[in-house]
Amino acid sequence: MQKSLSSNNWNIWDALIVLATVVLFRAITRLILGNVSTGLSMGPVLLLEFLGGSIGLGVIHTYMQHHYYRSSLKINLTMEKPWWYVQIALISGILMFAVLTLGYYYLLLLLGVDISSFFAGIRQASGVFNRATVFMAVCIFFPLLTEVVYRGYLYLAMEKQWGNGVAMLVSSLLFSLFFFNFWLMPPLFFAGIVLVLVYEMTSSLYTSIFSMMIWQALTMAYINIF
């Protein structure tokens, strides 16, 4: 029997298997890097961790496609109106930076909560190679991996069974747990909601990926400059 993400046969358990595999491969990569004295700085470590998750995504996608599906998994990687998509990505990316990075950071400072230590590794990154790998990890691999998993697989599967509202909230909640950091959960949760809305406006995962990349790039620039 043929099965694809665009059909009613695709279910939430399939999406959760994808998420669990990505988390497992990330954890294995982190464990290996933690137990092996590599001497790597933060940039390469982050990059390798996200690469590990991406490999996990590729493995489970290939396995499911060959063993359960006869057609490709469709996650709406379309680009029918490129300039419209770019505008939406720019606006949403800048808004997320203004509200979820600057607004949230200064709100925490007013409340007496200092999360600057979380960004210390990024600020201390020195050398062209280390800075380049930090940028690649945070601004390229992180958006690609998370958007494909959380909006491309999880949200679409949940939306078919639970509807837009519940799917948006649950997929965003799972997204907020990505770094296992309590203080990063609120901005990631609301970012998940924004990215779902961006996806729904354009029906293209490219837009939410570009939006996330812009948000992360602006955040990286702010962390390093200020």
Q: Can you walk me through this structure?
A:
This protein has 226 residues and is mainly α. It has one domain (12-225). Helices cover 75% and strands 0% of the residues. It has eight helices and no strands. The chain has helices at 12-35, 42-67, 82-110, 120-123, 128-162, 164-176, 185-202, 205-225. Helix 1 (12-35) runs antiparallel to helix 2. The longest helix has 35 residues, at 128-162. It is globular, with a radius of gyration of 18 Å.
Domain tally:
1
Strand content: under 5%
Uncertain regions: pLDDT < 50 for 5+ in a row? 1-8
In whole angstroms, the N-to-C terminal distance is 56 Å
What is the multimeric organization of the chains shown?
single chain
Topology:
Layout: H1 12-35, H2 42-67, H3 82-110, H4 120-123, H5 128-162, H6 164-176, H7 185-202, H8 205-225
Helix pairs in contact: 1-2, 1-5, 2-5, 3-7, 3-8, 5-6, 5-7, 5-8, 6-7, 7-8
Concise summary:
By secondary structure, the protein is mainly alpha-helical.
Note the main attributes of this structure.
226 residues; mainly alpha
